[in-house]
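Hi V.,

Quick status before I head out on leave. The structure for the redesign project is tokenized and pasted below; the design run finished overnight.
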């Protein structure tokens, strides 16, 4: 059975993951509006990943006799000035999420909740990947600045990304 404090914190993190998904879906729609369908696809896959993240925490609460409480999801930004800004914003956002995960690990340690800590370690590693991927894209886009052909090439590459559900969700058990 999970403790109340940890349960409340994990419910807030479910909300944060769903907000991330909402934010990336909004960015995806923005890229559609400026005719960069590859970037739109990349952010759509990001949204699917964030939904999967919320499911990992959801399953953890269910498995431990906790109660899932879905909270209102804040409205994400809607407009960006150029193709680079959503990526810059995503990088900032992922750094914030990394800090949230760090706080949850600290709480799990305080509460001596080893099961929550173990589940959260998946997120600790995932955030390293998330920050690396998005900061890499920001850098690549800087190279393409002022070179439309470069942006279109990158768009084609990003259009090939497909969502793979994390093994932790498909392993069963
Ligand atoms: Fe996430
Ligand atoms: Fe993320």
């Amino acid at each position: 059975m999970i403790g109340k404090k940890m349960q409340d914190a994990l419910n807030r993190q479910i909300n944060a993951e769903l907000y991330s998904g909402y934010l990336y879906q909004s960015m995806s729609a923005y890229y559609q509006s400026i005719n960069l369908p590859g970037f739109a696809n990349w952010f759509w896959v990001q949204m699917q990943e964030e939904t999967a993240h919320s499911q990992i925490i959801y399953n953890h609460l269910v498995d431990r006799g906790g109660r899932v409480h879905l909270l209102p999801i804040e409205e994400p930004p809607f407009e960006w000035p150029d193709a680079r800004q959503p990526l810059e914003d995503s990088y900032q956002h992922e750094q914030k999420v990394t800090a949230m995960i760090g706080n949850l690990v600290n709480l799990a340690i305080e509460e001596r909740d080893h099961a929550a800590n173990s589940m959260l370690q998946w997120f600790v590693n995932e955030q390293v990947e998330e920050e690396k991927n998005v900061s890499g894209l920001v850098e690549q886009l800087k190279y393409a600045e002022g070179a439309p052909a470069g942006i279109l090439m990158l768009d084609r590459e990003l259009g090939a990304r497909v969502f793979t559900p994390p093994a932790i969700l498909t392993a069963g058990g």
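Above is the designed sequence. The two ends are 18 Å apart (CA to CA).

G. will cover questions while I'm gone.

Best,
W.
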